[in-house]
């Protein structure tokens, strides 16, 4: 359609976003938990979702232009990375549960979209004020 | 629908970069190091990970309190308190170093660097390595400090709750002690012959001696039948709290049943 361009993915922000998730999310989780990823489900779940939301929001806010797809792809890559540590992350009770992995992946993607969108809104508001 | 906004132009016409080279280098290096530590070396780290000590890594005061309680329990059970194991000491040391030295240092260093650059940059200024450093430092400080806030708020409440609980438990122990004394007195009455003011195999006629019927701890009543006696102690300090002991001619130590009411439960 005329006037509508297909959005190009800014791969630079995908890479930076993935690094953000690892450095500002995985690393603090690892340090805070005593250099380990063995945690109880509830605090870990809260920590993971809040952390992911903050990082996705920041990417949306800080990047130039509309970058919603980029943090989503970053979260997807990050989820794949976490799959290798899934057994440790969720403890013995839920290890190996495919449904929990799928639910977790879905929720993180939804949250990344929402957070990045909120970040974009915030960025737009800040620009309007400026 | 692409709403990409062109990067702001620098005065000389060059496009301003979103990230400085040091930012990208530092971020990639930290990402690689994190992935390496988490996925390769996690199980080789000396700290007692997965244990209570490991989980309170950033809160050395909790580890220290745990060690103090363990020492107290050891003393209480007649054992010599052992020196804390090397991993616990290491965990406490690393917790102090991370929470109180590395975290604030990184944060302040990063903050200082960012502040130096601020006058020349707007909202879309280039992301620099100092931002990464200050955020990591801030995260460590934030994580170490946050649990201290609810602890500080709850401290007086917990302290008062502990004192109240201890007072109730102390009074409960005193009432139990008084009832035990009365129970032995009643048992003695039951086994003594009538010639020695006993019941000769029966509790019938037993009355609590006046000195034992009311003490500073509580007041006591006895419901007596020939074969069974029920002693009820009502706390003097906590009137809604009662202790009841029921036993037969075998005595309180053989089949006596205790019941607690109110806050004594």
In short:
With 130 residues, chain A is mainly alpha-helical. Helix content of chain A is 77%, strand content 0%. The chains are: A mainly alpha (130), B alpha+beta (265).
Percent of residues in β-strands of chain A: under 5%
Major interchain interface with per-chain residue totals:
A-B, 39 and 42 residues
Order of helices and strands of chain A: HHHHH
Q: Class by helix and strand content of chain A?
A: mainly alpha
- Can you give the mean pLDDT of chain B? 81
On the 0-100 scale, what is the average pLDDT of chain A? Answer: 78
How big a fraction of the residues of chain B is strand? 5-15%
- The helix fraction of chain A, in percent, is over 70%
**Major beta sheet of chain A, specifics?**
none
- Which stretches of chain B are low in confidence, meaning pLDDT under 50 for 5 or more residues running? 1-9, 48-54
Work out the radius of gyration of chain A. Answer: 16 Å
Which short descriptors sum up this protein?
heterodimer, A: 130 residues, mainly alpha, 5 helices, globular, disordered N terminus, B: 265 residues, alpha+beta, four-stranded antiparallel sheet, 4 strands, 52% helix
């Amino acid at each position: 359609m005329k006037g509508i361009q297909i959005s190009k993915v800014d791969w630079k922000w995908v890479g930076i976003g993935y690094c953000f998730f690892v450095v500002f999310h995985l690393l603090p989780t690892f340090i805070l938990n005593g250099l380990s990823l063995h945690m109880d489900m509830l605090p870990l779940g809260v920590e993971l979702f809040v952390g992911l939301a903050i990082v996705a929001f920041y990417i949306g806010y800080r990047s130039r232009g509309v970058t919603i797809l980029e943090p989503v792809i970053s979260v997807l890559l990050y989820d794949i990375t976490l799959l290798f540590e899934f057994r440790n992350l969720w403890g013995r009770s839920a290890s190996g549960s495919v449904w929990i992995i799928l639910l977790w992946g879905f929720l993180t993607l939804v949250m990344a979209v929402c957070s990045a969108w909120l970040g974009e809104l915030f960025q737009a508001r800040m620009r309007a004020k400026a | 629908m692409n709403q990409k906004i062109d990067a702001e132009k620098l005065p000389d016409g060059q496009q301003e970069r979103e990230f400085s080279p040091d930012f990208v280098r530092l971020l990639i290096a930290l990402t690689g190091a994190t992935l390496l530590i988490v996925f390769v070396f996690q199980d080789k780290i000396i700290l007692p990970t997965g244990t209570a000590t490991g989980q309170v890594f950033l809160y050395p005061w909790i580890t220290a309190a745990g060690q103090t309680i363990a020492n107290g329990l050891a003393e209480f059970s007649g054992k010599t308190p052992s020196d804390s194991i090397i991993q616990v000491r290491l965990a406490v040391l690393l917790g102090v170093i991370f929470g109180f030295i590395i975290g604030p240092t990184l944060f302040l260093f990063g903050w200082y660097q960012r502040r130096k650059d601020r006058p020349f940059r707007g909202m879309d200024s280039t992301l620099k390595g100092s931002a990464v450093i200050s955020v990591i430092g801030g995260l460590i400080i934030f994580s170490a400090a946050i649990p201290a806030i609810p602890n500080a708020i709850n401290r007086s409440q917990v302290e008062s709750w502990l004192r109240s609980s201890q007072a109730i438990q102390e009074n409960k122990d005193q009432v139990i002690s008084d009832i035990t004394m009365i129970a032995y007195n009643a048992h003695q009455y039951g086994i003594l012959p009538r010639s020695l003011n006993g019941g000769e195999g029966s509790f019938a006629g037993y009355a609590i001696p006046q000195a034992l019927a009311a003490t500073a701890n509580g007041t006591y009543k006895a419901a007596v039948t020939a074969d069974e006696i029920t002693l009820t102690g009502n706390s003097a300090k906590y009137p809604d709290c009662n202790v009841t002991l029921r036993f037969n001619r075998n005595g309180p130590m053989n089949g006596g049943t205790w019941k607690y009411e109110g806050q004594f439960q």
